[in-house]
Design goal:
Radius of gyration: 24 Å
Function: Catalyzes the conversion of UDP-glucose into UDP-glucuronate, one of the precursors of teichuronic acid.
Helix content: 40-55%
Oligomer: single chain
Distance between the termini: 70 Å
Number of helices: 18
Strand order of the largest sheet: 3-2-1-4-5-6
CATH class of the largest domain: Alpha Beta
Keywords: NAD, Oxidoreductase
CATH superfamily of the largest domain: NAD(P)-binding Rossmann-like Domain
Shape: elongated
EC number: 1.1.1.22
Bound molecules: uridine-5'-diphosphate-xylopyranose
CATH architecture of the largest domain: 3-Layer(aba) Sandwich
Strand content: 5-15%
Pathway: Nucleotide-sugar biosynthesis; UDP-alpha-D-glucuronate biosynthesis; UDP-alpha-D-glucuronate from UDP-alpha-D-glucose: step 1/1
Structural class: alpha/beta
GO molecular function: NAD binding; UDP-glucose 6-dehydrogenase activity
């Protein structure tokens, strides 16, 4: 089937590539000439495991191509996916200008029936606005053409996006016209394993489903982070509590890991946008505000522990940082807890020596050259002359380091673990002072060995 994808960012590129992989003929359109040129050269602007080779194979097979030519894109696909950005406005609501611009472009250039699909995460009611934008443009042209608008939100996780798309738990399709459900059923049929993954519903419910999923997951995390702070104060171990509650299938083990706060492009943005949507319809979503407030506070927990350990004297210290990206297997720094930590450390006069397997370039792009930030070659190099190590992103290589070496390199054997990846008893045995999230610290509070 012929498919057009508007927006070659994260969602668009993964969607287009995976649809091409299943044998569809896909054209990806983007207004960013530089991005399209990169993609045509086979360079992928984002880091996503498995994506690059899949793009190469499908371009070589002639099933996937990239263009800035909007008219060409509109002419090509029966399916017109809108996967452009919806950045938050100052007030937290999603900015729909790019989505509506695509809608108008489709209206401008279409000359037969089109299925226009909202793939971007958009507020409830956006499909209606897309429909209006297309209709108005068609009326202005004096063209009488049929089209349908569908809400088909994506549920991709960065770092696992290809797998999530190829083996979806569910494909949500919101329509007001059964014929479009059938067209999408055909498009997505190759992605069904064992049973049909498509869940059809009305458009507004589909739009809300996306926010509901992300808000529920963010709520689970904030709930656990809140309890981890309580555990800290009560002398309990949140990891024992996590195991204790996760064993109840009604609660489950997933997404109840306490940590340094959630980041990324989705949870912070979507929780804010849903809160805003609620306000627009005269409802104060108190739980959502709390989820957000707890998360903001959580991003300071590691800094507060450092501050307390060093008795407030952070000026002139060097802190080693393992991890920068908001989670492993991505180079994405959006809303990353590491940013809040680094900025607080700088504010307090400390220096940071940081390593991340993928996000170094992005960090450099954001912060540029500065005296108080050294982006170093590897995890060991980060430790050189540092007063403490902070682990903030749980990349695999950080999970079982050579602790003897860590101890040797650090000026003081102090580790702050923002993801609870180490065993406190083991760390104490190795002679570390070890702080985690919601677990009693272990080891001697080390005397400051820094020579003044
Ligand atoms: C998320 C959703 O999972 C995905 O379905 C949606 O389409 C987009 O948003 P993503 O932002 O890529 O995906 O990351 P995810 O793996 O969900 O992690 C989000 C954040 O939550 C990360 O900062 C992670 O560290 C944090 N997290 C996750 C926790 O702190 N604890 C957990 O138990 C799980």
């Amino acid at each position: 089937m012929n498919v057009t994808i508007f927006g070659s960012g994260y969602v668009g590129l993964v969607t287009g590539t995976c649809l091409a992989e299943m044998g569809n003929d896909v054209v990806c359109v983007d207004v960013d000439q530089r991005k399209i040129e990169m993609l045509e050269r086979g360079e992928i602007p984002i880091y996503e495991p498995g994506l690059e080779s899949m793009v190469h194979e499908n371009t070589a097979a002639g099933r996937l191509r990239f263009t800035t030519d909007i008219a060409d894109g509109v002419a090509h696909g029966l399916f017109q996916f809108i996967a452009v950005g919806t950045p938050p406005d100052e007030d937290g609501s999603a900015d729909l200008q790019y989505v509506l611009a695509v809608a108008r472009s489709v209206g401008e250039h279409m000359d037969d029936y089109k299925v226009i699909i909202d793939k971007s995460t958009v507020p409830v009611g956006t499909a209606d606005r897309v429909r209006e934008a297309v209709s108005e443009t068609l009326t202005r042209r004096g063209a009488e053409l049929e089209f349908d608008v569908v809400s088909n939100p994506e549920f991709l996780k960065e770092g696992a996006a290809i797998d999530d798309f190829m083996k979806p738990d569910r494909v949500i399709v919101g329509t007001d016209n059964p014929r479009t459900t059938e067209l999408l059923r055909a498009l997505y049929a190759p992605f069904n394993r064992n049973h049909d993954r498509l869940i059809a519903m009305d458009i507004r419910s589909a739009e809300l489903t996306k926010y509901a999923a992300n808000a529920m997951l963010a709520t689970k995390i904030s709930f656990m982070n809140e309890l981890s702070n309580l555990a800290d104060r009560l002398g309990a171990d949140i990891e024992a509590v996590r195991n204790g509650i996760g064993s109840d299938p009604r609660i489950g083990y997933s997404f109840i890991y306490p940590g340094a706060g959630y980041g990324g492009s989705c949870f912070p943005k979507d929780v804010k946008a849903l809160e805003r949507t609620a306000r627009d319809v005269g409802y104060e979503a108190e739980l959502l505000s709390a989820v957000e407030a707890v998360n903001d506070r959580q991003k300071s927990v590691l800094f507060n522990k450092l501050h307390a350990h060093f008795g407030g004297a952070l000026a002139g210290r060097t802190i080693a940082l393992w991890g920068l990206a908001f989670k492993p297997n991505t180079d994405d720094m959006r809303e990353a807890p590491a940013r809040v930590l680094m900025e607080s450390l700088w504010q307090a006069g400390a220096r940071v020596r940081a390593f991340d397997p993928e996000a170094m370039e992005e960090t450099h792009r954001i912060y540029g050259e500065r005296d108080d930030l050294a982006l170093v070659e590897g995890p060991e190099a980060a430790l050189e002359g540092a007063d403490a190590l902070v682990v903030i992103t749980e990349w695999h290589p950080f999970r079982s380091p050579d602790f003897a070496l860590v101890k040797e390199r650090l000026k003081q054997p102090v580790v702050f673990d923002g993801r609870n990846i180490y065993d406190p008893a083991y760390m104490a045995g190795q002679g570390f002072t070890y702080y985690a999230i919601g677990r009693p610290p272990v080891g001697d509070a080390v005397a400051d060995r820094r020579a003044d």
